Amino acid sequence: MSRRVGVYPGTFDPVTDGHMDIIRRATSICDHLVVGCARNAGKGPLFSLDERVAMVREEIQALGPDRAGRIEVVPFETLLTEFARSIGASFIIRGLRAVSDFEYEFQMVGMNSRLAPEVEIVFLMASETVHFISSRFVKEIGALGGDVSKFVSPRVTQRLKRRFAEKVRLAANAD
Hints:
The protein has helices at about 15-25, 50-60, 65-70, 80-85, 100-115, 135-145, 155-175, and strands spanning about 5-10, 30-40, 70-75, 90-95, 120-125. With about 180 residues, it is an alpha/beta fold. It has a single domain (about 5-130), classed as HUPs (Rossmann fold, 3-Layer(aba) Sandwich). It has a 5-stranded parallel β-sheet, with helices on both faces. β1 (about 5-10), α1 (about 15-25) and β2 form a beta-alpha-beta unit. The longest helix is centred in the C-terminal third of the chain and has 21 residues, at about 155-175. The radius of gyration is 17 Å and the shape is globular.
């Protein structure tokens, strides 16, 4: 029997409890999970690619050795379908939170299935406790001094606090 490799791609800027919910659940449908951390400079990430990879790796280690041993984090900056092929993935895992996610993902499935028909797309619905969380909202809340601890781990909360404090210092020095 061949090993089932899945890839869960994202920007993870920052990694949220919603992302971790999908990662935990994805390990039940694949033998090996690759969390693909996309460069995606077009989104203007708060954290560098290296910082995001390190953040996701920390969160995965917190899952414990049984799960963490079957997950790896790999940065990528190619087409998702090319990345999936390069790591031997037989399916791409995508999380769905709302109807708006479905519309976007539905279009992506059409494009990706033409580019790599051998790679299946698997959707996991976000759990009811995290379906409303998005990295964008977490960053907005954090930037305005709000409490993000209900949406991300304590480790990510601390990283966000440090990053926003740096931004405040840089802005103060620029004046």
